[in-house]
Design brief:
Blueprint (H helix, E strand, L loop, with lengths): L6 H6 L7 H20 L12 H26 L15 H19 L11 H29 L4 H15 L10 H25 L3 H15 L7 H28 L8
């Protein structure tokens, strides 16, 4: 069957015009499906990644259900330019710096994993969860929503800010799965700024795949148990907590300022 961005899909045309409204409806549908499936597990959010069984039930199953919604929409809508940009935009230096710091941070997260005490049974569900997160959330925000915003001829500044803020707001669903409100508000803020860096991955490469891979690896590194902290690891961890969001903010502000009059690509 024809896939989005292929010549056959382009010849047949979209079933519904790419726009912001349908894209937001897909986001809401995904969030609803994920939240309901996760919440009905009865497992507190803080215990999601404690055991392999918990990961399969609270992370993999909800993510798989939400992914089905996204794949069904992608197949049905036949929108082009979901996975690649029609043309390339110039890339401010801060976006390159933010992406580089994000990659370094991911490597350091893996270094800090408690590999010696890791339950090997935890690896398969965590890897699957990371793959699904990377695919689903990037297809949704830096793919479908980004395409919808661009199709409505909004400026690229609006596209970058809109997709990043929507990504952050999605994490409010963690309230329904038992995460405390202060932690959720912090997740919303950090996710918004991280979303700006993930947008940078797409802008630099012109492709969605690098953002999917980076997002998946980042979350896998966070899902795995951390080794007992040392003075060095604590200092590096604190630096990452500050540097990554700060660079995300700088990237977002830079794009918002420089591209406030830049027409987005249809």
């Amino acid at each position: 069957m024809p896939q989005p961005d292929t010549p056959a899909a382009l010849e047949r045309g979209p079933r519904i015009r790419p726009s912001t409204g349908p894209a937001l409806l897909v986001v809401v549908a995904y969030a609803a499906v994920f939240t309901v499936v996760a919440a009905t597990s009865g497992i507190p959010y803080t215990e999601w990644f404690d055991t392999p069984a918990n990961v399969w039930r609270t992370a993999v199953l909800p993510l798989a259900a939400g992914t089905i919604v996204l794949v069904a929409f992608l197949w049905w809508c036949r929108w082009t330019n979901i996975f690649r940009d029609r043309e390339r935009l110039r890339v401010p230096a801060v976006l390159w710096i933010a992406v580089g710091a994000f990659l370094i941070g991911t490597v350091l997260h893996f270094v800090f994993v408690d590999w010696s005490g890791l339950d090997v049974g935890l690896l398969p569900p965590v890897l699957v969860a990371g793959f699904l997160v990377g695919f689903a959330e990037e297809a949704m925000f830096r793919g479908i929503l980004l395409r919808g915003l661009r199709a409505d001829r909004r400026t690229e500044a609006t596209v970058a800010v809109g997709t990043s803020v929507a990504f952050g707001v999605l994490h409010l669903t963690n309230l329904a799965t038992g995460s405390p409100a202060p932690a959720v508000l912090n997740q919303v803020l950090v996710a918004t700024l991280t979303g700006a860096i993930l947008y940078s991955f797409r802008r630099i490469s012109g492709l969605l795949l690098p953002a999917m891979i980076a997002h998946g690896l980042w979350d896998i590194s966070l899902f795995l148990p951390v080794a007992d902290p040392t003075a060095a690891s604590s200092l590096i961890g604190l630096a990452l907590l500050v540097v990554i969001p700060a660079l995300g903010l700088m990237a977002l502000v830079t794009v918002a300022a420089r591209d406030r009059a830049t027409p987005s690509m249809a």
